[in-house]
Specification:
Blueprint (H helix, E strand, L loop, with lengths): L6 H8 L6 E3 L5 E5 L4 E6 L4 E6 L3 E3 L6 E5 L3 E9 L7 H10 L8 E10 L2 E9 L12 E8 L4 E9 L6 H5 L3 E2 L21 H11 L6 E5 L8 H10 L5 E6 L7 H9 L3 E6 L12 H4 L5 H13 L4 E5 L20 H16 L5 E5 L26 E8 L12 H15 L4 E8 L6 H11 L6 E7 L2 E3 L5 E4 L6 H15 L1
Parallel strand pairs: 13-20, 14-15, 15-16, 16-17, 17-18, 18-19, 19-20
Antiparallel strand pairs: 1-2, 2-3, 3-4, 4-12, 5-6, 6-7, 7-11, 8-9, 9-10, 10-11, 21-22
Helix pairs in contact: 11-12
């Protein structure tokens, strides 16, 4: 039995009434009105065309990652991946990218099969999840098609809708490959939006992140802020007073008020890293429960406790979200980074409504995306200018304990991300956590080189050393990042910090 096309579906395929062309400022794309239902969009930078609903607004602000088409009920994203210089291929992209859809019980796959798009064997998949009560007009119906231009170059069209999807295959059938005849336009930089802060938070923010501010170092020392005795000994050894320390928390505990007050008494600002996972028992991420309102009272109480300490907090929510080791990553949520954005904004807004003015929001992707697919690019997770006070960078010299890892200099790590971030973001930059392992190279020499090279990244005003250990599955130290691992490491750090203070 042949499937009937809706009127809109037929228009998408056969629409022929050509109306005036609208071109983007950089002439990287054009939009042609075909009829009252349909526009034809052509992307000259990436070499494709597609028919979309005429009432859709087009977002090309990050065309290097995706082009987005949006109306009240539907969003269509078009992504492009080029794996020419990577190990990935169309097969690994398709198989690994869709694997998590079958592992998350919240998602239900209703159809998965191969189809022809533009004469190319492509992969089609439909899936759904339950609606979320705290997302207005939640788009919980999905359809996705992955189209290989070559084995190494792949286009992906993802539609999501608040209603069951009926026209996706008609839309996909209009996708055509064209020649790439335009350079990729420069992406638009974000804006710094000044918002009300408490007197203490504003003073810390201005003193730390102003253009003329000197570079400062912070530290993650596992026993602080619960106990400051070891950190005080360490500061004496290094002859340096770290102004910022790090504290991690999951959803198994409330706001750590006593520890935060202890930090305040010791003149330490805490980079408070909240990860919306429960680590006890089933070790689940609770994004869904939060966006269904089940944790409203938790966050209202949390916000009031945070405000009550009357002291600045660098609030880092769900960091490294573009890494598949994070259960709140889009990899585990239907390739839909918007769920991360909705969660981030929801918590931000709850804080705002409850009068929190001492939290400085730090948004912090990982240096590399895992998987390194366009729909998992860090900018897909960007919550918006008004929600981000500081942008965090994270990059480690992991050493070579594990297969596939290599010893990397500080410059090699941060050249790759700093200049891109500096062009893309106008907000202040900080290194939220970094360090060097001792496995695979000369750690003291790495530290000496780091102190020499870090000044070239002049927009970084705060860098936080992660002084801990990553353990392998057998309980052996795999990556030793400790800042006091040996006398030679301590000497290298102390000498570098002495130069910083001058």
């Amino acid at each position: 039995m042949k499937k009937k096309l809706t009127l809109l579906g037929l228009a998408l395929i056969l629409g022929l009434t050509l109306l005036p062309i609208e071109a983007s400022a950089e002439s990287a794309s054009t939009v042609v009105s075909l009829n009252e239902y349909t526009n034809q969009y052509e992307n000259y930078a990436l070499g494709y065309s597609l028919h979309v609903y005429q009432d859709m607004k087009i977002d090309e602000s990050a065309m290097d990652i995706r082009t987005r088409f949006v109306n009240a009920d539907t969003t269509i994203d078009v992504y492009y991946d080029d794996f020419t210089n990577e190990l990935d291929s169309f097969a690994t992209y398709k198989n690994y990218g869709n694997k998590s859809l079958y592992n998350n019980p919240l998602f239900s796959v209703s159809k998965s099969r191969d189809i022809k798009v533009s004469g190319i064997k492509s992969h089609l998949i439909y899936y759904t999840r339950p609606k979320l009560s705290k997302i207005k007009n939640d788009k919980n119906y999905y359809a996705c098609v992955e189209i290989p231009r070559t084995n190494k170059k792949v286009y992906t069209i993802i539609m999501k809708s608040s209603k069951p999807i009926s026209d996706f295959e008609a839309i996909a059938s209009t996708f055509k490959l064209t020649s790439s005849s335009s350079a990729m336009p420069a992406y638009k930089a974000t804006k710094t939006i000044t918002r009300p802060m408490s007197k203490e938070a504003k003073e810390f923010y201005d003193e730390t992140f102003a253009q003329k501010s000197n570079l400062k170092f912070g530290i993650f020392e596992p026993t602080a802020p619960y106990d400051f005795s070891y950190l005080k000994q360490l500061q004496t050894k290094l002859d340096y007073d770290f102004p910022v320390i790090v504290r991690y928390q999951h959803m198994d505990e409330k706001f750590p008020k006593n520890e935060m007050l202890t930090a305040k008494l010791n003149n330490k600002v805490v980079e408070l890293t909240m990860q919306t996972t429960k680590e006890q028992g089933s070790q689940e991420d609770i994004t869904y429960k939060i966006l269904n309102g089940e944790y409203d009272q938790y966050f209202i109480t949390y916000a009031n406790d945070l405000k009550s300490i009357n002291y600045p907090v660098l609030f880092r929510l769900n960091n490294e979200m573009n890494g598949d080791w994070c259960k709140y990553s889009a990899y585990h949520y239907g390739k839909d980074a918007d769920l991360y954005v909705e969660l981030y904004r929801y918590i931000y807004d709850l804080f705002k409504v409850n009068g929190v003015d001492n939290a400085i929001f730090v948004w912090n992707p990982n240096e590399r995306s895992f998987p390194n697919f366009a729909w998992n690019h860090y900018m897909s997770y960007y919550p918006g200018d008004e929600y981000v006070d500081v942008v965090g960078l994270t990059g480690y010299n992991t050493g070579n304990y594990y297969k596939g890892e290599s010893w990397r200099s500080f410059e090699r790590i941060y050249d790759e991300i700093y200049y891109e971030y500096a062009n893309r973001f106008s907000q202040p930059l900080m290194i939220t956590e970094f360090g060097s392992s001792s496995h695979g190279g000369d750690k003291p020499a790495w530290i000496q080189d780091m102190f020499t090279k870090i000044h070239k990244y002049d927009r970084i005003k705060l860098a936080v050393w992660w002084s801990g250990v990553d353990w392998d599955t057998k309980g052996n130290p795999a990556r030793i990042y400790k800042i006091d691992e040996s006398a030679s490491v301590i000497e290298a750090v102390k000498n570098g910090l002495t130069r910083i203070k001058k």
